[in-house]
Amino acid sequence: MSQFYLCSKNHSIVGQMDTYLAFHRDGDTNHYNHRDNHHPSHRHHNKTPNADDRINEKPFSTTFNPTFPSVQNLSEESTRPNYLNNSPTSPYHLGRDVPSDEALNKIKTANSVTISPELFEKIYLNPQKEVKGELRQTFGNPTPLALLGFLLSLSPLSCELMGWRGAGGDGIATVGAYYFIGGFLMSLGGVLEFFLGNTFSFVVFCSFGGFWFTLGATLTPAFNAYGEYATDPNNIATGLTSPSFHASFGFFLLFMGLLSLIYLICALRTNLAFVAIFFGLLMTFVVLTASYWHFAAGHLVMAQKLQVAAGAFGFMAVMAGWWIFFAQMLASVDFPYEIPVGDISRLITPLSERVKQKERFSA
After folding, report:
1. Are 125 and 281 in contact (CB under 8 A)?
2. Residue 46 — φ and ψ, nearest 5°?
3. Ranges assigned E (strand) in the chain
4. Nearest by Cα to 159 from 147, 146, 183, 177
5. Which of 78, 155, 172, 224 has the most CB within a 10 Å radius?
6. Residues 140-199: tens digit of each pLDDT
7. pTM summary value
């Protein structure tokens, strides 16, 4: 009686195994054939057990789970190993189409991630904004180009304002860089940011491109900007030392400081490197305005000290700019190491999330 019960039990279990093996042979043949090519030890699964094998098989009552997986679960590619690459797809690879919120959540929980240049630019350089179209996949990131124009113009000007190695002349020596590097490259980068849908970068780069064009034109004798203030008609260069010229040009620098303040507030949604850049620019324009006005009032010693201080703040801004430019270039070539830029994009809750939270609570 007990022998009949054990035999019945074994045949019942073998029947379940036949169903399970038949299911895999019919529904997932390619998967097993591929596995058998790599694992010869598993080739016996393709053979249907005969009667002798069934008698010699051990009971599976403690190891076999008769609950079979569903067809839907077995047909999903995400549940199978990626045999084409011989390794499973990493859950921490962040492509260019990954939303910023999802990417930030993965970054917070991962020890290391692979991040594309497009996603890097989306997270660290611009507010999180969805853009339609395929332009991001077609064209390169114009941000490093605009940053380069900014750096190669302000870096020498800051050194000139501080008087390093006897430099001076209010930046006249590098007036060509204001046109062809600062003005041209920043304006070009701003226009390209416009086509990519990056409003913040577009406005910042184009506005400072216009600043460099304006500064270059002011210092170019052909525009006669300071010639009208010359005390000697035969020497228009005396207009650069005219109190009226300094008092007038100071207003332009003052409102550039106001523009930098607005950018500084907006930069709180980006990263610490951008915050340092705009803070340095804000202080540069404000202190330089005070220097010009002190010069117009005849306080030459104080004006000179303020000019050096303005150059120091500008140098601080360009150091932060060189840092973020370096981070951009490393990301553009998929360098195995990356430098932090101090992401603070989640420090201030976006307006869109506030609206969603309000709608959720009201509902």
Report:
1. no
2. -75, -10
3. 93-94, 114-115
4. 177
5. 155
6. 889 999 999 999 999 999 999 999 998 888 888 999 999 999 999 999 999 999 988 889
7. 0.63
